[in-house]
Amino acid sequence: MSTFVIAYYALLIGGSCLAAYFKKRELFLLIFSLTLVSFVMGIIGGVGALRFVTIAAGILALAAGTSYAFREFLIIIAPEGVAKELRTAPLTAAFGMFVIFTYAIAGIFAPVIAPFGEAEIISSAFAPADENMLLGADQLGRDMFSRIIYGARNSVGLALVATTLAFVMGAFAGLMAATKGGWFDQFMGRFADVIMSVPSLVFALLMLSIFGTNLIVIVIVVAVIYSPRVFRLTRAVAGNVVVMDYIEAAKLRGEGDWYLIRKEILPNSTAPLIAEFGLEFCFVFLLIAGLSFLGLGIQPPTADWGSMVRENATLISFGELTPLIPAAAIALLTVAVNFVVDWMLFRSSGLKEV
Amino acid sequence: MVPKKDVLLEIKDLRIEGYSDEKWVEIVHGVDLTLHKGEVLGLIGESGAGKSTIGLASMGFARDGCRISGGSIEFDGMELTTTPESALRALRGSRIAYVAQSAAASFNPSHKIIDQHTEAPIQYRIQKRVEAQEDAMQLYERLRLPNPDEIGFRYPHQVSGGQLQRAMTAMAMACRPDLIIFDEPTTALDVTTQIEVLAAIRDIVDQFNTAAIYITHDLAVVAQMADTIKVLLKGEEVEEAPTAQMLDSPKEDYTKSLWAVRSFKRPQKQRPTGADAIPIISVQGIDAAYGQTKVLDDVSFDVYPGMTVAVVGESGSGKSTTARCITGLLPPTKGQILFNGEALPPRYQDRSKEQLRQAQMIYQMADTALNPKIRICDIIGRPAQFYSGLHGTALKSRVDELLDLIELDPAKFYNRYPPELSGGQKQRVGIARALAADPKFIICDEVTSALDQLVAEGILKLLDRLQQEFNLAYMFITHDLATVRSIADEVVVMQRGKVVEQGPKDEMFTPPHHPYTDLLLSSVPEMDPNWLTTLLDERGTDAIGEAANV
Known about the structure:
The complex is a heterodimer. Chain A is an all-alpha fold. Chain A is built from 14 helices and no strands.
């Protein structure tokens, strides 16, 4: 028994006793379950496992602390109305916002942050990390770190544009269908079904092979693939709004469809639509990353996380983690966006976990 | 003094807090309540008075977002505030039962009525399934449900609203509880159906000597049911007295004002005569159908300028459908509607802006009739802008003028959103929106039925004042005959899509009547505590059964 192990258990047990004594139920449950996990891990994996648990708990605590501080910071700088909403945000949502904030900074100030250009060859292929290159070099000797930073701009920017386009098309069609009803609704609904019935990746590959792989084509193809989902959601949400008496009152007043959509229906459907935007963004992002991985997305030498995974894939057989870094960047953003969206969904729909 | 052992429920200094705006706010401020075995206590008050909250608290229960923060609730020697949840659960359903306002929403639509009925007795091992079912059928018979042996095997949507409410009362009796809490059990029902439910509840409470707390906002109803009445206001007790004493000589001003509510009445106007008098709206022999189902059959009546025509009838009698035909939402299959002597196009899409402007509508549920995301000034301002092309300062002064008309302070309400308003204020905004179009004819669809009596009276007075000021014609759809008495000039009685009788109000309220009008009129509860007994004696028990099947 090393001193580390003794100190470790003493700290945990002392902490849980204190929490129990002060009736901090949640804190007690947290610390004591950690203690129990450590017992099991310690028996199976020895001191190494315990150190791993300590580090993992430390990182989690650090992330929680950062999220908490970031939320408090936002509450202070935000105007009154927004600050009130922010107070209801759970730590996960604050963490998500922090990550998105970091990505946004990285994307916007990419040329300032990145030490080298995205296509600049500065070293030999697959050179290991040194004081010049934080994460080493890729298969052509370009700086991995710089490419990751530029990737934030390219991948995220492209996904954002494509999602926005999908949203504008889908939401407009959905609102029109709900307002007009009748044959127009039927037609749009069946049209959306047709698009959705084709597997999205296959459809994208087909379109990109036909029209070539430039950025505009990618954006349009991805937007067309994802707009039927937005259409369906918007139509369902707007469908609940159009049956309200105030819509009837506006119709009887003689208002046109455009007024109904803009002034009466849209303000009452924004919350679920914003939440959907976040979710769709994740899907679009993953689809574009997938396309890039297959070589049909953003073309070299432009840095893009999806293609970076593919280009460096060979390294994985040598036990290097480098190709996993862009993959982790994708995963982290997706998780972060989902955290924020969960909070928004919770707020807009009163979606409660029982 | 009643001996202590007869006390079933004793609540002392009950305090309940509700969670809103991130802090706990006290909503019930120290209410005392004593209920003896077999006694029926009526709890009355406006919405927000804490009636239901107190009713639920007597089961030791607080709704989500509420907590019992002080006082004691002693049920048959058991302190409910400190009893663990598991023991409370054993108590609920077996010794204390609850009958909710809407039976339709409280029954599970995918189980048969009798299965839901027998669930509690079987669960608490009081009866075996077969015994429980037989007992249920006996209860159904006592509650005068038609086909008591068979009705339990239907699903909730296969029986009528009044029958479902009675089935729910039977369900509450399943374990022969000591206490039943009735939370507005008849509010959602028509007057004719209400009677059967009231009679059934009273019988069964008498027979089993069950104590009951009867929560309602309708004084006439509580007068029939309760031995003692307790008046609540904003979570505090105003006064408590035996029913007869409370009705004859209320002590507090608030109680007196509640009692006086139904006294508003304005003079009846006569139809203008002469050749140049043309009705503003003339409904001429319209038929209408939803799909294949015919809902209106040869409906005709006239509305003259400056007059109020009340359309009365039970739910499903076609009142609102008539309104939908007039507004053009549902084109009639036969007949026509004249506006000032000119035929209106049947579909609203084909009507001119001017025709649309002249006929406006005020809705029953102000909550759904006002867009929650639009400011009051825009809600009211839009029709003025749309029809008269007002904008800028002219529009603002028009909105201010309208807000003044509906007695809301423009400085305070101009920039607010509908969810920040109370029910009565929302309804006033709804009226202002209709007025903003400067119409000649307004359809009022049950505008007061969702409101408390005091607030409803304010709305009626406002509508009356506006009518005199602008010479408006109203078509007043309602099922509440007290409203008809106070505001109508002419009455149209509808039943199953047909007009059964129509004429000036004074004629309609004096016999002889059409049998249906008679049934409708005699079913309106009166403040006399013996009213229900007298009425039931007059009609005989068979008549109740018939009324149930009307």
